[in-house]
Design a protein that fits this description.
Blueprint (H helix, E strand, L loop, with lengths): L29 H32 L5 H21 L16 H11 L2 H13 L5 E7 L6 E7 L10 E7 L6 H4 L3 H8 L5 H9 L2
Helix pairs in contact: 1-2, 3-7
C-alpha cells in the first residue's frame, strides 16, 4: 500500500572546511585535503541521501526493498559523513591552534587514564597504525564509567561503541593520505600530531 510522504525532508549536506585547503601544509597538502573533502566526504553525503531517497520512494510506491543491504549501505554512508564531519575540526594549522599537547580538563582526563600524554599518544598511534584495512582511530568517552577509551573503527561503522561520545578522530583510510604519503600510514599519523586541534577536542569534552 502506498504511503503519503512529506516532500521537504531534510538532507545531509557537506560541511565547509573550517580552514583553507592549504592551511595544514606541509603536514597535509592542499591537493590531499581538497580531494578528501570535496570528493570522498561528498561521496558519503551523496550516498546517504540516495539511500534515503530509495527508502522514501519505496514507501510512496509500496515497493519491496532488500532492507538488509540498504540499511548496511546507509550505515556505511552516514558513518562516513559523521566521522568526517568530526575529523575536519579536529585539525588546525600547526602553530595556530594545531599541535602541541592538550590542556585543561582534557589533559587531566588523559593523565588520570593513561598516566601521561606520551602514553596516550603511543596507544592512540598504535591503534591508528594497526587498523585492519580502512578505518579510523577515535578517542571517546564512556557514558557509564566516564572514562575515556580509544576506539579502533573499521570502515566507518564497525566496532563503534554505542552511545559513546567521540572527542577526536583520525582517518586512516588510504584516501586520507595517499597523495602525500603513498602507502606510509605511519608517516601520516606522525604528521597528524602536529595539527591536532586540542581546543576543539577539549570543548567536545566540556559539552558531554
Amino acid at each position: 500500500m502506498a504511503v503519503e510522504m512529506m516532500t521537504t525532508q531534510r538532507k545531509y549536506e557537506l560541511p565547509p572546511l573550517p580552514y583553507a585547503a592549504d592551511a595544514l601544509e606541509p603536514q597535509i597538502s592542499k591537493e590531499q585535503i581538497s580531494i578528501h573533502h570535496d570528493k570522498h566526504h561528498q561521496g558519503y553525503v551523496t550516498g546517504a541521501n540516495a539511500n534515503l531517497e530509495r527508502l522514501e520512494k519505496a514507501r510512496q510506491e509500496g515497493a519491496e526493498l532488500d532492507m538488509k543491504a540498504l540499511l548496511k549501505e546507509l550505515s556505511f554512508n552516514i558513518g562516513g559523513h559523521v566521522l568526517h564531519t568530526l575529523f575536519w575540526p579536529t585539525m588546525a594549522p600547526a602553530g595556530r591552534g594545531g599541535g602541541g599537547t592538550p590542556g585543561g580538563a582534557l589533559a587531566d582526563l588523559i593523565e588520570r587514564e593513561w598516566g601521561s600524554f606520551n602514553r596516550f599518544k603511543a596507544e592512540f598511534t598504535k591503534a591508528a597504525a594497526s587498523v585492519e584495512g580502512s578505518g579510523w582511530a577515535a578517542l571517546a568517552c564512556c557514558p557509564i564509567t566516564d572514562r575515556p577509551i580509544i576506539m579502533q573503527i573499521e570502515k566507518h561503522n564497525t566496532n563503534v561503541y554505542p552511545s559513546f561520545r567521540i572527542l577526536m578522530v583520525l582517518d586512516v583510510w588510504e584516501h586520507a593520505y595517499y597523495l602525500d604519503y603513498q602507502n606510509n600510514r605511519g608517516q601520516f599519523i606522525d604528521a597528524f600530531w602536529n595539527v591536532v586541534n586540542w581546543d576543539t577536542v577539549d570543548k567536545r569534552l566540556e559539552n558531554i
